[in-house]
Amino acid sequence: MSLVSLAFDTGLRRKPSGIIGHAVKIFAAGTAVWTIYAAGFSRADVLSLTITFLSLMLVLAFLLITPTAKSRTDVVPWFEWIGAGVALVTGAYFLTQSDAIAVRITLLSPLSIYDVIAASSIILLSVEAMRRTVGLGLTTIVLLFIAYNLFGDAIPGAMGHGEISYRHFLDIMVFTTDGLFGVPIRVAATYAFLFVLFGTTLAKTGGSDFFFNLAASLTGSTRGGPAKIAVISSGLYGTISGSPTSDVVTTGSVTIPMMKRLGYKPEFAGAVEVAASTGGSLVPPVMGAAAFIMAEYTGIPYLDIAYAAIIPALLYYLPIYLQVHLRACKIGLKGLDKDQIPPVSRTLRTGGMFMAPLFVITWALVEGYTPTYAAIYGTLSVIVVSSFRKATRLTPSLVFDILSDTCMKTVAVTGACAAAGLVIGGITMTGLASKFGTLVFLISGQDVLISLLVAAGLTILLGLGMPTPSAYVLAAVLIAPVLKGLNVDLMAGHLFLLYFAVMSALTPPVAVAAYAASALADAPPLKIAGAAVKIAIGAFLVPFAFVYDRALILEGSVFEIASAFVLVAIGLSMVVAAQEGYVKGPIGWPLRLALLAGGLVVIFLRPMLAGGL
Questions:
Q1: What is the DSSP string of 95-151?
Q2: Do residues 154 and 261 share a domain?
Q3: Dist CA 378 CA 51 (whole Å)
Q4: Are 160 and 203 within one domain?
Q5: 535 Cα distance to chain centroid
Q6: According to the model, what pLDDT value does residue 500 have?
Q7: Residue 235 in contact with residue 256, Cβ under 8 Å?
Q8: d(CA 496, CA 308)
Q9: Among its keywords, does the record have Membrane (predicted)?
Q10: Among the residues of 431-489, which ranges form H helices?
Q11: pLDDT of residue 602
């Protein structure tokens, strides 16, 4: 096992058998029912709901996730029951104290010994849960932040801070909404959970099969058809899964072997799947959990974020699709045989109804409903349309599986969000964000382009081995103030950071999505990651383009928006042709370099003419 994989390894999903297995699934399904009620219909205060949600998820983390990748997955050891019990007792304590917590004065109202014990316990439980679910890499970062909070007063110079006692640390971290029970966990308990429920319901009723068949019907007969199927189906599935890794293993199990059989090299087949899957979190109307955190953190309505993301998402997939086509032409590949391609008419007739839930979610957001209710309405519409056909109709056992699976899938998201909350609390306590901004300004000299390059690199670095929500939160807290100080637009700046937080999933050396694809492709993960970076070139150029030209995020006249889109699309096409060394035939290095330089000029032509670059 490599050091990289060891450092970012997580526990395995337990599948206990017998009465214990049934009991855990019942607990998970019950937690899901409560979370749906709490998110959409409860009138209880947010703090109580957040405390209850985190406690229930910590119980599941100890019962469902093994301590290491070598642990047994068929039994729940006795010590795991102790961890689950402590999580329940601690949650019950905070729930009984929620009214007092809501009215207490931070740093003035003293903490009792029971407060200290309960707060210490829930932090320890959360750290262990994040280690199991998102790996040692993120856990180490959180522990370093905690150490900085407690001992940073010993650091000389600007990076030091005033003395913070242990009770002061617990007061901010646990007894306010600036730390563990802050925005990230609230997002996990509402938007993220309900959209995972939507995606699980859609997949269980046959929606994911429909999207794959639709992609096959539309592109299967063209050159490199299977790879194009991967691009479209993974993008569509990614909009409902929100997880690059789960998308890779779900759609990649079909598309990667299909691409290899057609003649693509294993690393290229894996890279196409990784690039297409990763971008799913950037596709409206259902983007990943990080987009919901962005809405909550910035105060920008989620609908506005979804609108702004439309053109960048199209520009993300354009070079991927074009590169797949050019590679197929270059090595002489053909499409699938006719008998392997489902007819469009049959595909739409048997599954076209699954387009309706996406329209319902879009309608709900346009009408001004919150993302919470948009997800609820989307899930209800899946239930309605699935009832039209016997093969897709929900049964009580299937409903039970959907509820329990949704809860189990959200455990990892909760671990990541708990980590993000601890980091935010630590940064708030120490004022690290402003110090970090000073450091970036020293490197960039307050030059916007250099600052953006530094911001992109740091966001990818912070996101190595992390789930996208955690990567975005770190970037938003540490780097966004720098962009604000340079007068970068709020929407453009945070969408810029979101893009590079997402891209950390495929960027070496810790490309978690590439590691997921390596077993399916039977190729080294770092080779897959390197090829994926090349294929996803649009994701590394488009964010710079929309920061300098906000027409790309739908700010401007119709002509400005259309001209910006066309120019960037042409420029990206030129860059892809330069990368592949092929247009209608092979091209030499002089022309490739000319295409690369010309493509970059065309992408940034409007900002250059306007004097903004």
A1: HHTHHHHHHSPTTTSPPPHHHHHHHHHHHHHHHHHHHHHH-HHHHHHHHHHHHHHHH
A2: no
A3: 27
A4: no
A5: 19
A6: 92
A7: no
A8: 11
A9: yes
A10: 432-444, 448-462, 468-478, 480-485
A11: 94
User: What are 250's two structure tokens?
Assistant: 């779900």
pLDDT at 6 over 60: no
Q: Which helix (H) or strand (E) holds 199?
A: helix 193-204
Find where tokens 């200290």 sit: 116
What Cα–Cα distance (Å) separates residue 533 from each residue in 257, 342, 458, 527, 607? 21, 32, 17, 10, 25
Q: 171 and 195: one domain?
A: no
Lowest-confidence region among 473-482, 540-549, 561-570: 473-482
Sequence letter at residue 99: D
Residue 508 is given by DSSP the state: S
577 within some domain: no
Cα–Cα distance, 350 to 160 (Å, whole number): 63
**In terms of domains, do 204 and 317 share one?**
yes
Do 265 and 232 lie in one domain? The reply is yes
If one counts every other C-beta atom within 10 angstroms of the C-beta of residue 445, the result is: 8
Looking at the structure, tell me whether residues 250 and 156 fall in a common domain. no
pLDDT band at 31 (very low <50, low <70, confident <90, very high): very high
Q: List, for residues 489-509, the tens digit of each pLDDT value.
A: 999 999 999 999 888 878 876
In one-letter notation, the amino acid at residue 337 is D
Q: How far apart are CA 596 and CA 571, in angstroms?
A: 9
- Global pTM reads 0.74
Residue 393 has pLDDT above 80, yes or no: yes
Per-residue model confidence (pLDDT) at position 600: 94
Q: In whole numbers, what is the pLDDT of the chain averaged over residues?
A: 84
Q: Enter the tokens of residue 531.
A: 């090829």
Residues 69 and 191 in one domain: no
Q: What pLDDT digit, counting tens, does each position of 238-248 carry?
A: 666 556 766 67
Measured between alpha carbons, how far is 203 from 209 in angstroms, rounded to an integer?
8
Sequential DSSP letters for 62-86: HHHB-SSTTS-SS---HHHHHHHHH
* Domain final residue, candidates 129, 159, 184: 184
Does residue 73 contact residue 145 with C-beta atoms inside 8 Å? no
Residue 529 is assigned to a structural domain of this protein: no
Structure tokens at 49: 């709901």
Question: Does a structural domain hold residue 425?
Answer: no
Helix (H, G, I), strand (E, B) or coil at 509: coil
Number of domains making up the chain? 2
SS3 479: coil
Write the DSSP string, 414-436: HHHHHHHHHHHHHHHHHTHHHHH
CB 511 within 8 A of CB 490: no
Last residue in a domain, options 349, 383, 411: 411
Tell me the average pLDDT across 582-603: 91
Q: Which domain holds residue 349?
A: 187-411
DSSP summary character for residue 585: S
C-alpha 8, offset from chain centre: 17
468 and 501 Cβ atoms separated by less than 8 Å: yes
- Interacting residues of 470 by C-beta distance below 8 A, sequence separation 6+: 134, 138, 184, 416, 417, 419, 420, 423, 463
Concatenate the DSSP letters of all residues of 226-288 into one string. Answer: HHHHHHHHHHHHHHHH--HHHHHHHHHHHHHHHHHHHT--HHHHHHHHHHHHHHGGG-SSS--
**Which residue type is seen at 197?**
L
Q: What is the arithmetic mean of pLDDT over 581-590?
A: 88
Task: Please indicate, yes or no, if residue 613 is contained in any of the structural domains.
Answer: no
Place of tokens 């306590």: 429
- Same domain for 151 and 200, yes or no, is no
DSSP category for residue 188: I
